[in-house]
Amino acid sequence: MEEPEMLAKHDWRINKIAFAPPQNVFTDGKWIQAPTVLSIAASGKYGNRDVSFPIPNATALFLELSYESHQHSMEKIKAAIETGVMPIDSKGGLSISDTEAFGFFQAVMASVVFAYTALEAFVNEEIPDAYVHMVEEKQFTRQYDKVQIERFLNLPTKLGDVLPEALAVKSPKGTTIWENFRQLNATRDRIIHLKSDDRHYRHDTPTPLWTDLIVSPLPENYRIAKEMIGYFFLTRDKIPRWFAKCPF
Question: Which of 3, 166, 211, 219 could pair covalently with 207 via S-S, beta carbons 3.0-4.6 A apart?
Fold first, then answer.
């Protein structure tokens, strides 16, 4: 079903928005006579000026940041290869400049971290407020309410165990979507918790993070996150507007 024009022109990242026909909104003691777009807004101060704005969907913001970072990383590695100098082997290997290489690393790391954060924002929002997660231990049952789930359980546990149980959806574990997420999660952990072996290069150690980030094709981290989110929307009659209108 197509959106009314007044609604369709609004940004896809807005959290909640609705179209109200004439005389469906009552305010200031009277019915509004024209069609109205309703959204939840917040306000703040910039300098000495009051500003108001619609509340965004946090998952959508992080997804787009991951997408934009991925596009930037593609541009950077392409430029690095095109301007590479000093062949380093008979197969045409190139030495790329520090500026191009470091710009690429920044962008690709951002795409990973933002994709992971999009999933974190999504799962924390989707867990019902009254849900309690039970974990059977040897001699007792550990209980986590929503606040404790958000604080103390890691993202793989939330996506693989908590959210499927809370929403009565089959766990994504064992699917291609899950395997892609596991790779994203592993790369994110290497970035956030950089170890000595990942920072440096020595012939007697495993490959550093920098080596493993330069791969072709580059993983579309934003798409990995989006596919995981979409997995939990498969059985829903109504998909959130921000997800349905996501442009990538």
Answer: 211
